[in-house]
Amino acid sequence: MELCEYTCWQLHDMLKRKEVSSREITESVIKRIEEVDERTNCYITKTFDVALQKSHQVDDKIRRGEEIHPLSGIPIAIKDNICTEGVRTTCGSRILLNFIPPYDATVVKRLKEKGAVFIGKTNMDEFAMGSSTETSYFGITRNPWNLETVPGGSSGGSAAAVAADQTILALGSDTGGSIRQPASMCGVIGLKPTYGRISRFGLIAYASSLDQIGPITKDVRDCTLLLNAISGYDEQDSTSVNREVPDYTKSLVEDLKGIKIGIPTEYFGKGLDKEVEEGVLDGVKLLCSLGAEAEETHLPHTDYAIASYYLIATSEASSNLARYDGVGYGYRGAEEDLIDMYKHTRSSGFGAEVKRRIMLGTYSLSSGYYDAYYLKALKVRTLIKQDFEEAFKKFDCLITPTSPTPAFYIGEKIDDPLTMYLQDIYTISTNLAGIPGISIPCGFSHDGLPIGLQILGPIFGEEKLLQIAYTFEQNTDYHQQKPKI
Ligand code: GLN
């Protein structure tokens, strides 16, 4: 087994026992990237020099006999919408083609302090708008399980990199499913934390009331380690919550006694692939055989989730993306006069999907339509949130499919935005409600593509989600399967 194939906690043990060095781990990951990234295209920017330098520092520390953090010396990939000081951060867009942030996002700062090794910036749908990583200006990312299929999106580069051992850990961001859906399609773990658990400072905004950064990892233990490292209040993000961060590794106990699982019937209807349905329901059976109890329940406003999400997200995006005008930073189009420069910059700097969303959002915020669309969507958002609050009075968690289908073919949905938006049907309500959700591998389709099971919990209910996910993982081996690439 190559070093790049291990998990973070395994490598940490090996580092502590001085069986390997961080340099060897980093070199193994670099070698793997050099072997396969031409085919997967997970990375927009590779930072191998910085990574090797950092690994030497950690090795020196170990040599001096100093204690190291569980993430010290471990390679991590960062989604390219998270700012990294001195390292290009493109958001998958031409408009930020040459943007080099002068500061680190809070999550990056926290990881640096812990000695993590930054291996590169991963590919994504432009401005995180998409479910397939096909809208990136830097080319599509391919799913390591089948290179003709998409890795999901928008954090497709991060999820595919973890699956293909092109990194040990990764960060993604999730506005409507962008951590969980690619994790599910690539057969890895993806957690969207409670809104406010993790600082968004330095995360390039798509829809600020929905965006959240989170871990993408090879197993649940790694997920707890990464979550521990990045969680917590940040005075630079007023939406981060000042609430104590528990040690999430304490959730790594195999115990489902008394756990009540709700199965929302609205998530098992039309459009759900048969194999995905079977995989998820078999997963629920397994959890029940281990001591949990499951019962059907309802989230009655589910039908309105896509419509309200695509109004709220696009409205916020139209405002957030107004700053890309060719003046402050990034790409600048040809300039005859000022207005002409704005026009050129924005029409050639943004791709088609981003422009579609800016137009949708501008429309729904415009006077005369605001009440009919944006305001209505906000009201529906409250109803969706209340559906969950009601459900969590009775259940510890809800279990659903993460995505209605396994990975689909490249090009299959890209020309039909509505079909693409339907990919998010099981993930977006979570963001509208601000609750946490995790996707874990629960099987494979007949043609060998991973299937993901989603566990949802109440606000700040990460610990129980992780405990359930961990127990599931300890009793299955789906997460240990590797794509042959
Ligand atoms: N696919 C959804 C969208 O395009 C979600 C994206 C995300 O979570 N960033 O908006």
Attribute tags:
binds glutamine, 15 helices, alpha/beta, eleven-stranded mixed beta sheet, 485 residues
Tell me what you see in this structure.
With 485 residues, the chain is of the alpha/beta class. 38% of the residues lie in helices and 13% in strands. The chain contains 15 helices and 11 strands. Helix 8 (274-289) links the parallel strand 7 and strand 8 (293-297). Helix 5 runs parallel beside helix 6 (180-186), helix 9 (305-320) crosses helix 11 and helix 9 crosses helix 12. The chain starts with 7 loop residues before the first helix and ends in an 11-residue tail after the last helix.
Brief summary:
The protein has helices at 8-16, 22-40, 48-63, 106-113, 156-163, 180-186, 220-230, 274-289, 305-320, 338-349, 352-365, 371-394, 417-422, 428-433, 462-474, and strands at 43-46, 75-79, 117-122, 169-174, 189-192, 212-217, 260-264, 293-297, 397-401, 437-444, 450-456. With 485 residues, the chain is α/β, with parallel strands linked by helices. Strand 2 (75-79), helix 4 and strand 3 form a beta-alpha-beta unit.
